[in-house]
From TrEMBL, chain A:
Keywords: Cell inner membrane, Cell membrane, Membrane, Transmembrane, Transmembrane helix, Transport. It is found in: Cell membrane. This is Sugar ABC transporter permease. It is a multi-pass membrane protein. Coiled coil: none annotated. One of its GO terms (molecular function) is transmembrane transporter activity.
TrEMBL record, chain B:
It is a multi-pass membrane protein. The chain crosses the membrane at residues 18-39, 51-76, 96-118, 125-145, 173-194, 215-240, 260-291, 303-322. The lineage of its organism: Bacteria, Pseudomonadati, Pseudomonadota, Alphaproteobacteria, Hyphomicrobiales. InterPro entries: ABC_transp_permease (IPR001851). GO terms for molecular function: transmembrane transporter activity. It is found in: Cell membrane. CDD domains: TM_PBP1_transp_AraH_like (cd06579). One of its GO terms (cellular component) is plasma membrane. This is Sugar ABC transporter permease. Coiled coil: none annotated. PANTHER family: ABC TRANSPORTER PERMEASE PROTEIN YPHD-RELATED (PTHR32196:SF21), ABC TRANSPORTER PERMEASE PROTEIN YPHD-RELATED-RELATED (PTHR32196). It comes from the Bacteria. Keywords: Cell inner membrane, Cell membrane, Membrane, Transmembrane, Transmembrane helix, Transport.
Length: 332, 334
C-alpha cells in the first residue's frame, strides 16, 4: 500500500466517530431536548413515532454499510428498493384474489419473494461488474442505479401503485406489544449482520478486503466471490427496505426515498464506518441512526423545519469527524 | 516532426478518449441516418443550450477529481448562489457584470469553505461535501421557505443573443448566454489544466499528495483554488440555469449531482486523482447528451430514457475496465 493511501486510511480511521463520542453526543442531545421540550419529548407517543420512522433508513444504511466496509459504495440501493417494491406492488394489485384464503396468502408471499429475487438479480449484476470486471464500485452502482430506475420508470410510467392487503400494511404500520413491527424487522437484519461481520470467516474477509484488497487476495482469499456475495447481500437488504417502505406508504413508486441515498452514507460515516473501508461496527451505525432520529423528532416537536434538521445533521457529521483531529492536537 | 505526429496518434488511439469518440461518432451516424432532425444546426444549438448547466459543473468537478478529491455539494452551492444573487438583483437592481460577480463570489466562498474543512480538520472530502450539501441546502430552504422566484429582472429574462444569423427560411441562430458560458468554461478550464504551472501542480497533487507536499507545493492554497474553482463554476452554472428556466426553483438542482459525476467519470477521469482531461469530459458529456436526445428523436417514450442511459454507462465502464485488465495481463505475460 502506498504511503498516501496509508495516511488517508489513518486519517479516515481517526475521522470516524467512536462509540464514546456518539454516546456523549446522544446524552448531550437528550439533556438539551429535555430542557427545551420537557416531558413531551419522553412520552410513549414520541418514542413510538421515532421507532416507526427509523427502520427504513436503518435497513438502507445497513445495505450501504456492507459496501462501505469492503472499501466500496452502493449507490443503487434506493433504485433497487423501488424496483423491487414496484415488482411486489404490481403482483399484489394485479393477482390478489378478492376473498381471503390460501391463494390470498400465497400471492402475498410470492410477491415478496419475487421482490427479493429482483433485488438479488441487481446484486448479482453489481457484484459481477465490480468483482469480475474490475469496475470501481461508484461507477458500477451509478450505472445500475440509473438502469434500475429506468426499468422502474419505464414499466410504471412514473405512476404510483397503491392499495395492498392488510397483512402487508401491518408490516409497516402494525405493532407487537407496542413495538412497531418494522423496528423488529430492523433488529432481525442488524443482529445477524453484526454476528456475521464479527464472528464468521466471511465477516473477517470483508474487513480484510476493505483494508487491503490486494493483500487479501494474495493471502489466498477468493476476494471476487466474497465481493459478489457482499453486493447480493447489500441488494437483498434493499429488498427488505422495499417491503417496509411500500407497507408504510401503502404504495410504491419509482422515485420514493431518493433523498435517503446520501443520508445513508452520512449515517454510516457518523456511526464510525470508514468511507475507505475496513473499519466500522453495526452498533456504531445504530447509535448514529438513533442520534439522527432524536434530532429529527425533537425538531418536529419544536415545530422547526425538517430542512433545518438536514443542516444540523450535516453540521454534526463535520463536528464528529473533526473530534479525533482535535483530540490528537490536545494529546500532542 | 511527422514521426512525432504518428507517435502521438498511436497514443491517442489507445486512449479512453479515442474509444469514446468512436462510440459517439457511431451513435451520431446511426441517429443521423434514422432521423433527419438529429444532424441539424437547430438540434446542435438546442443540445448545447440545454446541457450547458451540467457541462459547466462537470468542468469544475473534473478539476476536483484530478486534484484527488471529490465534491458533491455543488448542487447546493448552485442553489444558494442562484437564490441569493437573483433575490439581490430583484431588490436592488443589477447588471450582467454584478450578477455574475455576486454568484461567483458566493460559489467561490462556499467552495473554499469545503477546502478549509478538508485541509484544516483533516476530514476526507467525500464526508465534508456530503455534510456541506446538507448544511447549505437545509439552511437555504429553512430561510427561504423553499419559495420559487418567478419574476426576474427584464434584461436577465431576455438574455443575450449574439452573432445572430439566418439559416433557411425562418430559423435564426445565435450564441446565447448558455452557449457562451459553456464555451468560456471549457476554454478557461483547458488553459488552467494544460497551460499553467498551477494546472501541472493540480495533476501532481492528485497523483501523489504526499510527494507534492514534500516538493514544497502549497497544498492548502491549491485545495482552496480547486474547491473554490468548483464553487465558481457552480455559481456561473446556476445563473445560466435560472436564465434558461426563467425562474429560480431552490429545490430542483439538489439531487442532480450524480448526473454530473456520471458525465465526468464517463469521460475517463479517475476517482483516485491525477487522471482526467477536458477533452474526455467533453466527450463524456456529449455521449450522455447525444444518447438522451437520440432516444427522444427516435420516438422512444421518454420514460425509457434513464434505462438506456444506465445501460450505456454500465457497458462503457465495463468495457473500459475489461480492456485495461486485458492490457495488464498481456503486459504481465510479455
Amino acid at each position: 500500500m502506498s504511503n498516501a493511501s496509508l495516511r488517508r486510511r489513518m486519517v479516515g480511521l481517526a475521522g470516524s466517530g467512536t462509540v464514546g463520542t456518539l454516546l456523549l453526543l446522544l446524552l448531550a442531545l437528550w439533556v438539551v431536548f429535555a430542557i427545551t421540550i420537557g416531558d413531551r419529548f419522553f412520552s410513549a407517543n414520541t418514542l413510538q413515532s421515532m421507532a416507526f420512522q427509523m427502520p427504513e433508513l436503518g435497513i438502507l444504511s445497513l445495505a450501504m454499510m456492507l459496501a462501505l466496509l469492503s472499501g466500496g459504495l452502493n449507490l443503487s440501493i434506493i433504485a433497487t428498493a423501488n424496483l423491487s417494491g414496484l415488482t411486489i406492488a404490481f403482483l399484489l394489485t394485479r393477482y390478489i384474489p378478492g376473498s381471503q384464503g390460501i391463494a390470498w396468502v400465497g400471492i402475498q408471499a410470492l410477491a415478496i419473494a419475487a421482490g427479493f429475487a429482483v433485488a438479488a438479480l441487481v446484486g448479482l449484476l453489481n457484484g459481477f461488474v465490480i468483482a469480475y470486471l474490475g469496475v470501481s464500485p461508484i461507477l458500477a452502482t451509478l450505472g445500475t442505479m440509473t438502469l434500475c430506475k429506468g426499468v422502474a420508470i419505464g414499466l410504471s410510467r412514473g405512476n404510483v401503485v397503491s392499495g395492498f392487503p392488510d397483512p402487508i400494511v401491518f408490516i409497516g404500520n402494525g405493532t407487537v406489544f407496542g413495538v412497531p413491527f418494522a423496528l423488529i424487522i430492523l433488529a432481525f437484519c442488524a443482529f445477524p449482520i453484526a454476528l456475521m461481520l464479527n464472528a464468521t470467516p466471511f465477516g473477517a474477509k470483508v474487513y480484510m478486503i476493505g483494508s487491503n484488497e490486494q493483500a487479501t487476495r494474495y493471502s489466498g482469499v477468493n476476494t471476487r466471490a466474497v465481493l459478489l456475495k457482499l453486493y447480493v447481500l447489500s441488494s437483498l437488504l434493499a429488498g427488505v427496505a422495499a417491503v417496509v417502505m411500500l407497507a408504510r406508504f401503502n404504495s410504491a413508486n419509482a422515485a420514493y426515498g431518493e433523498s435517503y441515498l446520501l443520508v445513508t452514507i452520512l449515517a454510516a460515516v457518523l456511526g464510525g464506518i470508514d468511507p475507505f473501508g475496513g473499519f466500522g461496527k453495526v452498533g456504531g451505525l445504530m447509535l448514529a441512526l438513533i442520534i439522527l432520529q432524536v434530532i429529527s423528532s425533537a425538531f418536529n416537536l419544536l415545530n422547526l423545519s425538517q430542512f433545518l434538521t438536514l443542516a444540523i445533521w450535516g453540521g454534526i457529521l463535520i463536528v464528529v469527524a473533526a473530534v479525533p483531529h482535535f483530540a490528537g492536537k490536545m494529546l500532542r | 516532426m511527422p514521426k512525432a505526429h504518428v507517435a502521438s496518434f498511436g497514443r491517442f488511439r489507445r486512449s479512453h478518449e479515442f474509444w469514446l469518440l468512436l462510440v459517439i461518432l457511431g451513435l451520431c451516424a446511426g441517429l443521423g441516418f434514422a432521423n433527419a432532425q438529429f444532424l441539424t444546426l437547430q438540434n446542435l444549438f438546442d443540445l448545447l443550450t440545454s446541457y450547458a448547466f451540467v457541462g459547466i459543473l462537470a468542468l469544475g468537478l473534473l478539476v476536483v477529481l484530478i486534484a484527488g478529491g471529490i465534491d458533491i455539494s455543488f448542487t447546493a452551492t448552485a442553489s444558494v448562489a442562484q437564490y441569493v444573487t437573483l433575490s439581490l438583483a430583484n431588490a436592488y437592481g443589477a447588471n450582467w457584470i454584478s450578477v455574475f460577480a455576486i454568484a461567483i463570489g458566493i460559489g467561490g466562498a462556499l467552495g473554499a469553505l469545503n477546502a478549509v474543512f478538508i485541509q484544516k480538520l483533516r476530514i476526507p472530502s467525500i464526508i465534508v461535501s456530503i455534510a456541506t450539501l446538507n448544511i447549505f441546502y437545509g439552511l437555504l430552504i429553512f430561510f427561504t421557505g423553499g419559495k420559487y422566484i418567478y419574476s426576474l429582472p427584464d434584461w436577465f429574462a431576455t438574455g443575450i443573443f449574439w452573432f445572430e444569423f439566418e439559416w433557411g427560411k425562418d430559423s435564426s441562430y445565435g450564441v446565447n448566454l448558455q452557449i457562451l458560458a459553456l464555451a468560456l468554461a471549457f476554454l478557461v478550464t483547458w488553459l488552467l489544466l494544460n497551460r499553467t504551472n498551477i494546472g501541472r501542480q493540480i495533476y501532481a497533487m492528485g497523483g501523489n499528495a504526499d510527494a507534492a507536499q514534500r516538493l514544497g507545493f502549497h497544498v492548502f492554497g491549491l485545495n482552496i483554488l480547486v474547491y473554490g474553482y468548483m464553487g465558481v463554476m457552480a455559481g456561473i452554472a446556476s445563473l445560466i440555469q435560472a436564465q434558461l428556466a426563467q425562474s429560480v426553483a431552490p429545490t430542483v438542482l439538489v439531487g442532480k449531482e450524480l448526473d454530473v459525476v456520471a458525465a465526468v467519470v464517463l469521460g475517463g477521469a479517475s476517482l483516485m486523482g491525477g487522471v482526467g482531461t477536458v477533452l474526455g469530459t467533453f466527450l463524456g458529456l456529449t455521449l450522455l447528451a447525444v444518447l438522451q436526445n437520440g432516444i427522444i428523436l427516435l420516438g422512444v417514450s421518454s420514460y425509457w430514457s434513464p434505462f438506456f442511459v444506465g445501460l450505456v454507462i454500465l457497458i462503457s465502464v465495463s468495457a473500459t475496465a475489461w480492456s485495461q485488465r486485458e492490457r495488464r495481463t498481456r503486459s504481465a505475460r510479455a
